[in-house]
Design a protein that fits this description.
alpha+beta; Phosphatidylinositol 3-kinase Catalytic Subunit, Chain A, Domain 5; 3 domains; 12 helices; binds adenosine-5'-diphosphate; binds magnesium ion
């Protein structure tokens, strides 16, 4: 009898959460043993997510949390902090969302059934407090938290009423150029893809944290209004995976199919997506995975969001040397990328051949003239900006010419 008793006491009782959409209750999310179910409330008629059409009132997922909800929570640095502060196991997505999910990226929120959050009062340390502010969460791996502008500097969003208009992303001790790299990549993208195609962001500082941060302006908020924003892992319904590798489990062709299916202006957005993917290939971004593409609510429907999380990862020698997603059946080594492959990708996702050629020609010209690639004369040969430029010149030669 004894072993059974231990087993029973180790089982967490089924939990329930209220799911909100733009602040209004839309339905109930429940655990059923190891499975989960989302049920729309009677009378609710809007879709809260591409994978949860409201014409189907109940959505069921075996063995884990429905991927759309799973992807609302963090992966790396922030997950560790939330798990420790809230007293939940690191892998417990449902528990993390009950504590921190009221105000997620996008329009959906998760509340405990009684409407209150159960974990301790924020820490006195501003970093800890910002990372574990009750009812607020962010996805992604990198060290980051929500901030807002307060006169000349940025403040962590800690208290319930604090605005959370920006995301601050920080360097890691073992990667001291991440912030500068992303800033350079975003500036380069503005020149190459166009300013309106790229998230607004700038280098700044945040109270409580030494060193610089990349301060990214959120495009999923219009004042108090929460806009729907879904990443491609959510839209394809890919589970995150125990090692958070579900986001690499796809191809750029499958990502394009998300646009064909769900964008309100599919052909325009396919062209924008193609240019963005080509940009990522040229800058050596081996981390352009499913969670780094999203559809954003605009007037008239869902559209490909501005580009975000752009980085030249190839400058870091220990980093993955292959594309994050497959192209024509396999993940490609960056040094093997060439124009024919990229042209074939463009055509296979549904773009006319002349649109593909025109896009690559325009990218070639803009990369060649980009001021963001200018390296200061005093830079050392091992300066990451020198290596960055060399990666781009080498890739552009093979991919765009
Ligand atoms: N400008 C933005 N506005 C709204 N949401 C954003 C913006 N930039 C990123 N996000 C969301 O935050 C998540 C994490 O940001 P990201 O820059 O990708 O961080 P990481 O480097 O940790 O992956 C993204 O997957 C996206 O959902
Ligand atoms: Mg990301």
């Amino acid at each position: 009898m004894a072993p059974r008793k231990i087993l029973e006491s180790a089982v967490i009782p089924n939990r329930h959460a209220i799911v909100t959409y733009k602040g209004k209750r839309a339905g109930l999310l429940s655990e059923i043993g190891p499975d989960t179910r989302f049920v729309y409330d009677a009378g609710w008629t809007q879709d809260i997510a591409c994978t949860l059409p409201s014409t189907t009132r109940e959505h069921f997922w075996r063995n884990g949390l429905i991927p759309f909800f799973e992807h609302l929570g963090p992966e790396g640095w922030l997950r560790g902090h939330q798990a420790r502060a809230g007293g939940t196991p690191d892998q417990d997505d449902f528990g993390l969302l009950l504590n921190y999910g009221a105000d997620c990226i996008g329009a959906v929120g998760i509340l405990p059934e009684d409407g209150t959050h159960v974990h301790p009062i924020p820490d006195a340390d501003p970093v800890e407090a910002a990372a574990t502010a009750p009812g607020r969460t962010l996805s992604g791996v990198q060290k980051k938290w929500l901030v807002y502008r307060n006169e000349q500097r940025f403040e962590p969003s800690i208290r319930a009423g604090d605005p959370a208009t920006h995301i601050a992303k920080f360097n890691r001790v073992d990667q001291p150029t991440l912030v500068q790299n992303e800033d350079l990549s975003l500036r380069l993208a503005r020149e190459v893809l166009g300013k309106e195609e790229v998230t607004a962001a700038a280098i700044g500082t945040v109270r409580g944290e030494d060193g610089v941060a990349l301060i990214v302006e959120r495009f999923d908020r219009l004042g108090e209004v929460r806009l729907r924003l879904e990443d491609f892992a959510q839209i394809l319904g890919r589970p995150r995976g125990r090692e958070f590798d579900g986001k690499y489990n796809a191809s750029y062709e499958e990502a394009a199919a998300v646009i064909t299916r769900h964008s309100a202006r599919a052909l325009i957005d396919l062209g924008r997506f193609f240019r963005l993917v080509a940009f990522n290939l040229v800058i050596g971004n081996a981390d352009a995975h499913l969670k780094n593409f999203s559809l954003l609510e605009r007037d008239g429907g869902l559209r490909l969001s501005p580009a975000y999380d752009l980085l030249n990862t190839i400058v870091y020698p220990h980093y993955e040397r292959h594309t994050a997603l497959a192209i024509d059946g396999e993940k490609r080594a960056f040094e093997d990328l060439h124009r024919d492959l990229v042209v074939a990708l463009g055509v296979s996702i549904g773009l006319p051949r002349r649109a593909v050629d025109g896009a690559l020609q325009q990218l070639a010209k803009r990369f060649a003239n980009a001021r963001a690639l200018d390296v200061p004369p005093y830079a050392q040969p091992n300066d990451f900006r020198v290596r960055y430029r060399d990666v781009v010149l080498d890739n552009a030669e093979r991919i765009l010419k």
